[in-house]
Amino acid sequence: MRRLAFIVPIVLFLMVAAALGLGLRRDPSILPSMLIDRPIPTFDLPGLTPEDTVGLASSDFTGKPVLLNVFASWCVACVIEHPMLLRLQSQGVTIHGLDWKDEPADGAAWLAQRGNPYTLIGSDPRGRTGIDFGVTGAPETFVIDGHGRVRYRHVGPITPEVWTETLQPMLARLDNET
Amino acid sequence: MSAEIGQLALILAFMLGLVQGVAPLLGAHRGDRVLMSLGRASALLQMAFVVLAFAALATAYVTMDFSVELVAKHSHSTQPLPYRIAATWGSHEGSMLLWVLILALHGGAIAFFGRTLRETLQARVLAVQGMLSAAFLGFCLFTSNPFSRLNPIPLDGTELNPLLQDPGLVMHPPLLYLGYVGFSVAFSFAVAALIEGRVDAAWARWVRPWVLSAWISLTVGIALGSWWAYYELGWGGWWFWDPVENASLMPWLMGTALLHSALVLEKRGALISWTILLAILTFSLSMIGTFLVRSGVLTSVHAFAVDPERGAYILVFILIATGSALGLYAWRAPAMRTGALFSPLSREAGITVNNLFLLAATATVFLGTFYPVFIDVLNGDKISVGPPYYAMTFAPLFVPLLVLVAFGPLLNWKRDTARAVLMRLRWPIAVTTVAAGVGIVAFGIAKVGAALGIALGVWLIAAAFMLLARRWGIGRKGAETGRLIRTTPLAFWAVAVAHAGLGVTTIGVTAMTAWTVSEVVTMVPGQTIEFAGRRVTLDALGPGTGPNYQADQARFRIEGGGQPFLMLSEKRFYPSSQTQTTEAGIRGEAMGNLYISVGESATLGGATVRLWWHPLVGWIWGGALIMAFGGVLSLSDRRTRLGMPVRKAAPAKAGRAAA
After folding, report:
1. Could you tell me which of B326, B626, B305, B318 has the C-alpha nearest to residue B494?
2. How many CB atoms sit inside 10 A of residue B1's CB?
3. pLDDT tens digits, B295-350
4. Where exactly are the structural domains of chain B?
5. Any idea which fold A29-177 has?
6. pTM over the 0.80 mark
7. B610 at the A interface (CB within 8 A)?
C-alpha cells in the first residue's frame, strides 16, 4: 500500500506527457473552424461608446470580403498585432473588430491609445457572439467573403508572413469571386 | 572568426557533457576514483568552453557581425550597445545558449566547491548534471544553432523587437534562467540520492542554499517581468495569466514549497521522500516552462520561437528526464529511511500544510495553462480560460495559505498546543482585527473584500514583527533585549523579512484591485483637468528623437498634493522594424503611481490622454523584493553557509555570488 503512493507521481506524469504529446501534433494556429464556408452566425452588437450607435451586426458583412478581428484590451498578444492592423488599414483593407470578453470602456480606451484600425466595432462583453463564432482566444481573425460566409480562420497575431502568404492572396481571390 | 570559435567550443562542450554524464556514474558504482575525478574535470572544462561560446556570440553582437544569421536578425547598427548585448539572449537560440551557460556554471561550481561532499555523491550529482548539459547542448547544436552564417552578408540587421529594448528586459531573462536552472542542482541531488538510496544531513545542508539562491533569482526575475509588463504593455496590468508568466509562476510556487520542506529535512530529518519529490517536480516545471515558450502548443506573447520540432525535442527530453527520475522515485524512495515523526500540530505539520496548499495552487495554474491542450486532446474542442478562471480557483487557495503563513514560524518543532499558539499570536490577532474593523468602517460595506485583503497583509506583517519581538524577549521580565537583538541570527531575520514582504505584496494587490481609477480625455496644449485630487496640465505636444526611433511626446505638469512636477509620455516609432511602442509617463510614489499614456493625436492639435491612478502598485514589486531580500539574509547566515561551497579561504563571502 505504501509503495503504491510512490507510484502515483510517475503515473500522473505519464498521463500529462501523453496529453502534451498529442497536443504538440496539433498546431493551435491552424484551427479548422466549424463555420468554414458556412454563413456567419446572426448577431447585432452595440458599439464601444454611447456615441458609436452603429455597432456591428451580421448584416454588415455583405458586398466585399473583409477581415473580422477579435481583440480585447486585456490581450497581450493584441498589442503585438496592433501595428500590423494599422498598416493593413492604411493599405485599404477593411477590418471589423470584435471586442471580446471586455469592458466596452476599456476597449475604447485601448483603441484611443493605440489607434483604431477598425471600420466597424462590436462590443461583446459576455463573449456570446464569440461562442457563436467558436472564438478560442484573442487575437483571432476570420476572413469573411462578400456573401457573409466564413472562409478562413487564423488564431494568434497576424504577422507579416501570415498576411503575405495566406490572408492577402485569399482576400485577392475572394475579391475576384465577387 | 568568432562564430566558428563559438561553434567549435559548443561542440567540445557537448562531448564533454556526454563524458560527464557517464564517467562519474560508472566511477561511483565501481569505486573508481579516477573516473570520478574525470567527472569533475569535464564539468570544469565544459564550463570553460560554454563561457567561450557565449563570449563569442556576445562579441558578434557587440561588433555587429551581420554575417552571423542570429545577429542580423536581432540587431541593427543604430541599436544602443546595452541592447545589442541584451540581444544576445533576446532570441530563441541566444536564450538557449544563456540557459546552457548557466547550467554549465552550476555544474562547474559543484565540481569546484563540492570537494567537501562525499565523493560518490558528488560524482553522481555531476553525472546527472552532465546528462542535463549534454541534452541541452545537443538541443542548441542540432535544432537551434546560434552560430549559423549568412551569405550574402546583409548591410544591416533587423532590429530586436522594440518592446524588448528595455532596461527591465535586459535583466529579466538572465534572472529567470538563474532560477530555472538553479533548480537543476536540487534535481541532480535528488536523483543522486535516489541512486545512492540514502539521504543524510549533509545532503540537506547542501541542497538548501542552491534552492534558496535559485528561488531568490526567480522571485526577482518574476517581479521584474511583471514590472516590465506594467509599464511597457500599457494600461497598468501587472499580471496577465499569460501561459508564459504561468510557466515562471509554477516553478516559483513549487520552489517555495521545496524551500520549506528542505528546511524541515535539514533541521528535523523529516519529509525526506517528499523533499525529493518536490525537487524533481520543481525542475521539471522549469523545463516545462522552457518547453511551453518554444513548442507552439499554446500561443503567447512571449512565444518567439514557435517550432513544433523544437517542442518535440524538449518534450522527449522532459519525458526521459522527469520520467526516469519519477520512475527511480517509485522504485527507490519506498525503501528509504522514513523521517522523524511529528505531531499534527507542530512546525513540521504547519510546513506540510503550507506545502499542500502550494502544491494545489501549482496544480490550479497548471490546469489553467494546459486546459486548452487537454480539452483539445479529449474531444477536439478548442477553448480558452481567462483571468476569471484564476480569480475563481487560485485566490480561494491562496488566501487560506496566507492566513496560515503567520502560524508556521511561531509553532514549536515536534509538538505544540493550539492554546499556546493562539496565545503567542494574540497581538497580531488583535492588530488584524482592529485593521479589519477600521477598514470596513472607512471603506464601507461595498469594499469589505478590500478591507479584509488589507487586514490579511497587516496580519502577515504583524506576525512577522511578533516573531522578532518574541526572539528579543520584549514583554518578558528580565530579558536582555539589547543582547538578544544583537545575537538574532540572520536566518531568523530572514523568515520575518520574507513573510512581511508577502504581506506588503498582499496589500499592494488588494489596493490595485479595489481602488484603481482611470479617465480618458481629449486634451489640447495648455488645457488643465482635475484627476485624482491633482491638477494635470498638458504643457506641450511635439516630436522627439531617440537613437533608433522617432517619438510623439506629450509633456505634462502636475500640481497639487506636494511639489509640482513634470511628466513625459511618448509614442515611439521604430522605423527599421516599422513598430510602434507606447512609453507611458509614470510617476511612482509610496502611495501609488500616476500613469499617463497618450493615444492617437486627435484633430485640432489635441491628443487622447488616458490617466490612471494605481494605488500602492509599487508595493506589489516592493514586497517581492523584500521577500527576495529575506532569501538573501537566509543565504548569508553562517549556518546555511556551513554546507556551502566556501571553504576556509573566504569566510565573509556568501559562496556563489548570491546569484
Report:
1. B626
2. 9
3. 544 544 444 444 556 767 777 888 899 999 999 999 988 888 777 788 888 999 99
4. 2-334, 517-618
5. Glutaredoxin (3.40.30)
6. yes
7. yes
